[in-house]
Structures are given as structure tokens and as C-alpha cells.
Amino acid sequence: MICPAPTVPLDMLRSGEAGQVTEILGDVGSVNRIEEMGLRRGTIIRVLQSGSPLILAHGNHRLCFRPEPSTTVLVDLIPGEPAPMRDSSPSTFA
Predict the structure, then answer these.
(1) Which residue ranges form the domains of the chain, and what is each CATH number?
(2) Which of 13, 51, 57, 77 could lock onto 17 through a cystine, CB 3.0 to 4.6 A?
């Protein structure tokens, strides 16, 4: 029997973990702001840095996210997602 992925608050994910947004709870204004940032139901995100603020990867975008206490983003944990890769491009700094 296959167990469904656990649904957890986004801020509970650790660095390297990924999840799919299932629901955003909060007042209409807060939910709209979060959706305008690109976090919508069905969006797959990966946590690059846990804590406050969270640093999230969404496709080729990076988001700095600090949820309001009255707002919760719920995600289904995606098991076995690889940890984020470090940028291997040559540094432009000497």
C-alpha cells in the first residue's frame, strides 16, 4: 500500500526538501500577496535555506519568504527530491 505524502506547513521543511503547495490559509489580502509571488496551489518548491526567512527555489526563481503569523502555506512533502545543486559556474570575483 502506498502512503500519501504528508501535508505539512511550508516552514516545517528543511533545507533540500521539496513540496507541492496544496493550500494557503489566511486572510484574502495575505493569500493574494503570496499567490502574486508565485506560490499557488500546485506549485512545486524546494527549500534552499530553512529558518526565517525561508529561501525557496521555484523553477529558475529564488524567493525570500517570511510568512505572517496568521498565514499558513501547506505543502505535500515530495519524498526523495534531490538536494539543491551548488552553482558550478566559474566565479567572476578575483
Answers:
(1) 7-78 (2.30.30.90)
(2) 13
